Q: What sequence folds into this?
């Protein structure tokens, strides 16, 4: 979706009043809570259902004993205009801290920084011709407007066609592997095109250097603030409350079954992943754009390590080495001030995995042992005696895999039932998974929802 075009100038429209209308939101992740915040401005009575005992979903927080920080790593890019606007709107604009960030590559047992245009152009594993091809791919990719044509070709084939095999093997393949694990060869070119669009915009045009931001206190600050605003509007957030069934009401509206009870709502918006939608929602509520094909999600297994000493100078290190059990290293403390993290350095080691990956069967202790061996292999000089604690965090439904012709398989926002909507990350057809796009997706939804309220 071209959100910029769709949203242009439409954000300050007057909210319709939906006083006395009861609205259910399934899922208390970032999508569900921001949506609840926006809908509560219509004066509707909003109730959010969240399965877990704390809000936030994939953006939630974790107690690392010395401090609380994100369960998975999150940053804000300077180009995340809609997310930054949201933070300002909820009073957290001055809580965003911007820092210079660095990106690294680990190829053939060596670390390379590609954090500035200069370093990028001197990336040693590629010769001058390959670098020109790489530069051309990025330039060409960032100028493509018609992403639909890119849905018909895999990222691998497209990148080789534009930039050649060597550039693919040395540069793109590690990056795709870091982002998608073993499934990296089955995604369409839209995935890498949207990645190029998002990441290469993060370099400030003046200095051509990367900057990234975080909110003081991490995403917990954001969820605490959203919860405060919901309380002010009498909206309810039910935690530890797994919805069991959703059916259309006999004379309109939607009925929700949860905790041995049922409750009727005028409208319901479903924000949880698609597997939950298929289990919970009556079949006639779910409509797919064109052809029904189950959407596969990638999950993430992520070791988080707290240390007394820094481990990496890079915010992101992409790893092109199948001997290493994780696909990247995220040096969160290269951005986040140490006062935020109790004086400890926090580093994330993600491995992206499909549902059939054998890693899901391993115990946390087994995963810890495997990942720690990987850390020792990658950083043989690092004194493991300075490791303070290790945490294993997992999520199975993270990234819907944008395979060929992906946009044909997703559910529509507005279903055949006028009271039932689906609004989730599977509908990001030409964007990467991030909270700026979540915000844009909600703003786009609100324009249409407002029109629906108008017609009541
Ligand atoms: C490793 C990782 C790194 C990331 N890095 C960044 C980053 O740097 N920057 C960025 O902007 N974004 C990042 N993201 C993406 C960001 O986390 C997502 O965009 C965002 O969290 C998606 O929110 P959501 O609410 O759409 O989905 P989810 O977070 O999946 O929320 C869905 C919610 O539905 C709930 N649910 C499911 N079933 C039921 C049920 N039956 N009843 C009630 N509730 C139910 C779930 O418990 C969950 O809370 C990252 C994500 C991951 C995993």
A:
């Amino acid at each position: 979706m071209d959100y910029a075009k769709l949203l242009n100038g439409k954000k300050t429209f007057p909210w319709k009043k939906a006083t006395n209308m009861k609205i259910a939101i399934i899922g208390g992740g970032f999508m569900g809570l921001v949506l609840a915040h926006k809908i509560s401005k219509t004066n509707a009575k909003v109730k959010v259902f969240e399965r877990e005992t704390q809000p936030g979903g994939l953006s939630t927080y974790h107690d690392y004993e010395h401090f609380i920080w994100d369960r998975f790593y999150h940053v804000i890019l300077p180009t995340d205009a809609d997310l930054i606007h949201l933070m300002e709107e909820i009073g957290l604009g001055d809580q965003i801290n911007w820092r210079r960030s660095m990106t690294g590559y680990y190829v053939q047992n060596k670390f390379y920084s590609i954090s500035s245009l200069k370093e990028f152009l001197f990336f040693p594993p590629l010769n001058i011709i390959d670098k020109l091809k790489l530069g051309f791919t990025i330039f060409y990719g960032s100028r493509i407007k018609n992403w639909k044509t890119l849905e018909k070709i895999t990222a691998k084939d497209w990148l080789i066609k534009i930039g050649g095999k060597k550039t693919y093997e040395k540069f793109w393949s590690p990056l795709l592997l870091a982002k998608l694990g073993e499934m990296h060869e089955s995604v369409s070119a839209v995935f890498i095109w949207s990645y190029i669009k998002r990441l290469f915009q993060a370099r400030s045009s003046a200095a051509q250097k990367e900057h990234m931001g975080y909110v003081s206190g991490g995403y917990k600050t954001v969820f605490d603030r959203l919860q405060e605003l919901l309380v002010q509007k009498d909206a309810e957030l039910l935690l530890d409350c797994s919805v069991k069934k959703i059916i259309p009401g006999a004379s309109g509206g939607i009925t929700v079954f949860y905790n041995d009870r049922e409750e009727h709502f005028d409208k319901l918006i479903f924000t949880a992943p698609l597997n939950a939608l298929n289990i919970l929602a009556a079949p006639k509520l779910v409509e797919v754009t064109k052809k029904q094909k189950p959407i596969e999600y990638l999950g993430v297994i992520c070791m988080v390590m707290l240390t007394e000493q820094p481990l990496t100078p890079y915010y992101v290190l992409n790893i092109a080495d199948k001997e290493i059990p994780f696909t990247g290293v995220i040096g969160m403390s290269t951005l986040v001030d140490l006062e935020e993290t109790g004086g400890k350095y926090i580093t994330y080691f993600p491995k992206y995995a499909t549902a059939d990956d054998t890693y899901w069967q391993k115990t946390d202790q087994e995963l810890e042992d495997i990942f720690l061996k990987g850390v020792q292999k990658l950083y043989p000089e690092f004194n493991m005696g300075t490791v303070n604690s290790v945490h294993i965090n997992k999520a199975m439904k993270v990234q819907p895999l944008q395979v060929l012709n992906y946009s044909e398989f997703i559910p529509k926002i507005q279903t055949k039932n006028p009271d039932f909507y689906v609004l989730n990350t599977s509908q990001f057809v030409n964007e990467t998974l991030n909270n700026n796009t979540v915000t844009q997706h909600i703003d786009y939804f609100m324009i249409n929802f407002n029109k629906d309220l108008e017609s009541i």
User: Anything to note?
Assistant: DSSP finds twelve helices and 20 strands in the chain.
